[in-house]
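PROTEIN DATA CARD
Card holder: Beta-defensin
Chain length: 75
Origin: Nyctereutes procyonoides
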Amino acid sequence: MKSLLLVLVVLVLLSCVPPVRSGPNAYIRRVFSTCWRTKGVCRKSCGKSEEYHILCDITHLCCINKKYLPVQIGK
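Structure generated from the sequence above:
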């Protein structure tokens, strides 16, 4: 009977604790979300000082700072 009460108390306490995001830490996520020789970042949209160069996957763009882009001839 005491063990049942203990289990119920633990379950009630666990339901009150907010969920924590599990998974890799921020550094590991940043390394794996980089693209183009780690100079770019995979995002849904690029910032003002960034330019889209290649695709990371179907939904994300590889946003690269303009100073890291290769030189384009004829532009």
